[in-house]
Automatic annotation (TrEMBL):
InterPro entries attached to this UniProt entry: DHquinase_II, DHquinase_II_CS, DHquinase_II_sf
UniProt-annotated catalytic positions: 22 (proton acceptor), 101 (proton donor)
Family matches, as SUPFAM superfamilies: Type II 3-dehydroquinate dehydratase
E.C. no: 4.2.1.10
Family membership noted in the UniProt record: Belongs to the type-II 3-dehydroquinase family.
Description of how the protein assembles with itself and partners: Homododecamer.
UniProt site positions, description: Transition state stabilizer: 17
Example of a GO biological process term: aromatic amino acid family biosynthetic process
Protein known as: 3-dehydroquinate dehydratase
Organism: Labedella populi
Pfam families linked to this entry: DHquinase_II
Coiled coil regions in record: none
Amino acid sequence: PTVLVLNGPNLGRLGSREPDVYGAADLAALRRLLEAVAPEGWNVDLRQTDDEGELIGWLHEAADSGSPVILNPAAFTHYSYGLRDAAALVTKPGGTLIEVHISNPHARETFRHTSVISGVATGVIAGFGFDSYRLALLQVLASA
Ligand code: DQA
């Protein structure tokens, strides 16, 4: 089986982007971490885009394939109703979408306190750095 690990805008800059908030490791390191956790037979398909339409297309793909999704919507978290509606397609009965954040948005600026995604997510993990993704993957594996 495949788990889709989808990352929104500016997360391609991890490693150099605000390392005090997001740490010094990049997406390649995240991919290695998750591949080390995934058991034999599981494919970790990690992607990043700055494009809202592309991210929505990937959620449509997951809705069609039934693959579980770990989603860091990045700044789209806070305002993209289009992404929310696409996430709801994935979590239709039987589907899994876990919203993750590296930082704890609730401990940051007020505009980050609102997630338009959480209401249609299966669950949310935030504030644990890359371990937010690792914990989400463990949950996907536990419920598969
Ligand atoms: C983020 C938090 C968002 O508020 C921010 O826009 C991001 C990253 C996180 O992983 O902590 O780009 O989703």
